[in-house]
Amino acid sequence: MLIKLRLHEVLNDKVSGCASCVKGDFEYQLPTGAAVSCLLKEIGLKSSSVGLVIVNGRQAAKDYRLKNGDRVELFAPLSGG
Prior knowledge:
The chain is of the alpha+beta class.
């Protein structure tokens, strides 16, 4: 299946397993029914480095099963005070 993916903030610099990952929006191929956690593993991101997952404009858990055409946005954990 094909999803649209966007990495925010420092996540662009943390991606290690994804030669096609570029800043901004890009398409990414995953096995049908893959969860967000599978996506993170495939692109080389530790689960702890992602604080917020948005799928199609709504917050989603890392065990959310993606569907063809989903738009996924990943954000680093927020910090500060």
